Amino acid sequence: MRRSRKLEQHIAVFGESGSGKTVLLSSFYGAAQERGNIVNAGFNLVAENPSQGTHLSQNYLGMKRSGRVPEPNRFAAKSYAFSVKVKSRAQGRAADDGRFDALRMVWHDYPGEWFEHDVSGVDEAQRRVDTFRNLLQSDVAFLMVDGQRLLDNDGEEERYLKSLFTNYCNGLLLLRDDLLIDGKPLDSFPRIWIVALSKSDLLPDMDVDEFKDLLLEKAGDDIEKLRDVLGGLFASDGALAVGEDFVTFSSAKFEGTKIEVSERVGLNLVLPFACVFAFERHLRWLQAGRVSRKVGLQLLENAEVTAAALGVFGNWVAKAVGSSNKVAAAVGLLLTAVGPSLAHLAKDLQVKLVDFDTRASAKRDGLAAVLAGFRRDLVRAEEEQILFQSLS
User: What pTM did the predictor assign?
Assistant: First the structure.
């Protein structure tokens, strides 16, 4: 029997209590269960923990049918694992592209209370450290900015924003000594920190460019301080983007006692952020020579998984190392015995992506076609001024 193979990606979501993380997650999952959305997406999103899936669906249906906002998870650190089950559009069966059966995404939620209040004892302090360690495997992290709080501080937004980013910085500094191993910088850590506006439906006239400009004007120094704090935690801080990418999210449109869950903004970008967005950013850093060799190998090891699903990496490794299926060994041999630089390899992969959308769409089958759709979602989001991507 052939083993199941999954492309696994992780995201981390940070936000103060009340910033909308629970509603965002519930709407993300609940909307994905709607029959029409399944047909349009070409895949099923399945919660690997059935109890979590039931709870999120209950939250979503409570919003949709009863106008009831989900209760927040106070001091509850949770991880939610989802499988994206790709189906053949032609035959309605599980697709087999010869490489992967599914995309697995793990959503890590960091309790907002830990940014605002001190822990109550030794056990909770250890739980906070353990929770953060679980987030270290993520490639992408979202820093939530609460649209309601911006609205409440209209004209004086810096009061809220400076407090928010100060809390983020202080929370990380408190964990620093517990996270570093023998005082040495970490190699594994979220390297892309996207600033996300939650509840954007409350600010209908604010597109992502206006959101970005507001943050840079009112809290640019505070964002830079956060970058310095994060840069001090891990190796090769050249491969780090903090407050360079921005997105607007709306889980639903709230009107009095009615919640219109069909009017969502940006939630279809969560999966593209987790895999395609991070993959292409890593390639860009490698091509620009912004990372050390050690970190470059680590990023390539992570990127190889996505590249293999895209079908653009296999030829490189096969040509260099024959039948080896050890990713780290393959990349190491590729760079040492064969000789191309990290930038050379990254450039080659980037070139192979140029006509990827056309090839994957023509097949209309497998994970590659889904990833091609994710790339188009990112492009469309930029055109609609929902997403701002850094060029660095």
Answer: 0.83
